[in-house]
Amino acid sequence: MSAPEPKPWIMAIAPYIPGRSTTDDGRKVAKLSSNENPLGTSPKAREAFLSAASRLERYPDASGTELRDVLADKHGLDPARIIYGNGSDEVLHLAAGAFAGPGDEVIFVKYGFAVYEIAARRVGAVPVIAPDHDYATDVDAILACVTERTKLVYIANPNNPTGTYATKEEIARLHAGLRPDILLVLDHAYAEYIEGDAEDGGMALAETAPNVLVTRTFSKMYGLAAERIGWGYASPAIIEAMHRIRLPFSITIAGTAAAIAALGDTEFVEHTRAHNAKWRAWFSQEIAQLGNAGLRAVPSQANFVLVLFEGKLTAEAAYKGLMDAGYIVRWLPGQGLPHGLRITVGTEDETRGVATALRAMVEKAG
Ligand SMILES: Cc1ncc(COP(=O)(O)O)c(C=O)c1O
Questions:
Q1: CB-defined site of ligand 1, < 6 Å
Q2: The whole model's pTM is what?
Q3: Where do the structural domains in the chain lie, given as residue ranges?
Q4: Which residues in the chain belong to E strands, given as ranges?
């Protein structure tokens, strides 16, 4: 008997693998596999979330007016040009949904965020993978991948899983090298973690160029991963097209209330930023001290560090050893990184604990 047949491009998708929170034997351990905020959530956001419990029978405001207004005010943007979604994941999918289709090409970097390939394949587009330059985004390699069928380029900046950062000059050069009918999506999920005042100029490009979409999230710095609130900023025409295909009620009342309160809690954000900068630097330095044993930390501007294992201790052995020691990190053989572990910057205790466990494993491996 015949049965409904999924589209071949859907069956070509390798399902997204989320960061794990339990060990093989079901033990609960420190989760450093999903780049969440180790300091939790702003107390003000939690309070706002709880107060939304009195409105459970209501649909959310389908136009997200208050969230857009608060975001616009905070970042100096036009609220009409803000779109929001169930995490920035949804906004990334909306971009492909509105601007790519069967036979079109979508470019992203070799060690890129797994959702880009899924979003491209979902609409029948062809994923095109640009080579890296020592794990970092290589603008020339991306430009060399452009063909007349290219419709969209996804860049995470800082990038996940590498933590690398493309400068404002590089992003400007990339944008200048793309035809105006190609949508450049700059994914700023980790933009708040960039050292100092540096930024890649993405928002200014989204403000002026007709082909740039910037996406942001409340999941990382704002500690609201559970609530799934992301947003994007682009020209009115891009935003209008994406609105046509978004789910009408993709963000919840409680999540929206929490996000608005989190935006106002600058103390929590500053504390998170300072904590991350301190322990990211400390941890990277610890890994540098294990350089003789073949360990290397890719320079990171995010809330995680990609550690490469090029000596006797393998990434797989270190992954298992860390799990035994009580830490789940991300081993990414499926993303072309069998020799790498992506380790979220945790609390002080967690970060010190991971470094101590790695050092012990290195010594044991000889
Ligand atoms: C680069 C990048 N973009 C987007 C996201 C999606 O975040 P969210 O859907 O929680 O906003 C993530 C999550 O890990 C990410 O690493």
A1: 35, 87-89, 113, 156, 160, 187, 189, 217, 219, 225, 230
A2: 0.97
A3: 17-40+267-365, 43-264
A4: 30-31, 82-86, 105-109, 126-130, 150-156, 183-187, 212-217, 229-233, 295-297, 304-309, 327-328, 330-332, 337-344
